[in-house]
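User: Hi! I have a protein structure encoded as tokens and I'd like to know what sequence might fold into it. I'm fairly new to this, so please keep things simple.
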């Protein structure tokens, strides 16, 4: 009986871990490891295992794409908006997480470049039609010499099943929270 319970628990655990949490809304808890080392960076631009919180100011700079697929407000450069940017660096690797996207890439010197590709299974409104799309995004930029600020650009490309593309661009400035 105990062996069957263990197998059932392992099977259920495997099934839950295999789910796409974006489609189910399920958030699986992740327990911190008691043996994980804590690394303190030697300099502002060195590796860190702890997520760094940054104050991100993003300014929508415009778009390209077919007029029938862009809502009227989309083409107007916007006022700067503030949000949180989370950065995790490990050696030359970097992860940048905004409220909507998670970019993975590299850092060379003070320059970073990261990408995200997703097939959200969504539909894009183009006039009276709704078209499936794929998302491709990039975040590129440069850290300041002291590692406390950055400037960059985020570009989101939506590839519609009709072969058309919509591109949106934001200018970034960010300051690391202390």
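Assistant: Happy to help. Inverse folding works backwards from shape to sequence: for each of the 178 positions I chose a residue that suits the local structure. Here it is:
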């Amino acid at each position: 009986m105990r062996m069957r319970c263990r197998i059932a628990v392992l099977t259920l655990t495997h099934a839950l871990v295999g789910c796409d949490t974006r489609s189910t809304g399920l958030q699986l808890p992740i327990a911190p490891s008691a043996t994980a080392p804590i690394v303190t960076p030697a300099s502002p631009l060195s590796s860190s295992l702890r997520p760094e919180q940054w104050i991100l100011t993003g300014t929508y700079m415009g778009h390209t794409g077919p007029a029938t697929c862009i809502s009227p407000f989309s083409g107007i450069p916007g006022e700067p908006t503030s949000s949180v940017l989370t950065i995790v660096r490990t050696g030359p690797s970097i992860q940048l997480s905004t409220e909507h996207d998670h970019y993975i890439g590299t850092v060379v010197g003070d320059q970073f470049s990261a990408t995200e590709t997703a097939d959200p299974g969504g539909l894009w409104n183009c006039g009276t039609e709704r078209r499936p799309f794929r998302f491709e995004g990039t975040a590129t930029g440069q850290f300041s010499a002291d590692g406390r600020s950055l400037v960059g650009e985020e570009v989101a490309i939506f590839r519609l099943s009709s072969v058309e593309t919509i591109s949106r661009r934001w200018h970034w400035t960010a300051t690391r929270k202390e």
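A useful reference point when you look it over: The longest strand covers residues 129-143. Feel free to ask if any position seems puzzling.
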